[in-house]
Specification:
Layout: H1 5-19, H2 34-45, H3 49-62, H4 71-77
């Protein structure tokens, strides 16, 4: 495999980026968002107070919401059948015979 000047330059450029803590990656998105995503990446790469603010805002906006504990119990308590005197008893059955 021959090492052309262009390949060496690209390799050295990417090495310098890694040393600065930068990483190259591809993303898939709509063509209309290309300019927005590139400008966002440039702002985040600056790693200044503005970038930290953008990062915090995006992290908060994109963070998955944690489910509230007791959600099923709360839903059951809101049921229209709460307080209704339902007879849910079943008649006892012998069950099926085992074939084995």
């Amino acid at each position: 495999m021959d090492d052309t000047a262009q390949a060496r330059a690209l390799k050295n450029h990417r090495k310098r980026l890694r040393e600065r803590g930068m990483a190259r990656f591809d993303v898939l998105g709509l063509d209309v968002d290309r300019k927005l995503i590139r400008s966002l990446a440039k702002r985040l790469a600056a790693d200044d107070p503005g970038a930290k603010s953008i990062r915090a805002t995006l992290s908060q906006a994109l963070a998955p919401e944690e489910p509230n504990k007791g959600g099923i119990l709360a839903a059951l308590r809101r049921s229209p059948l709460v307080g209704a005197d339902l007879d849910v008893a079943r008649a006892p059955t012998r069950g099926r015979k085992s074939v084995l």
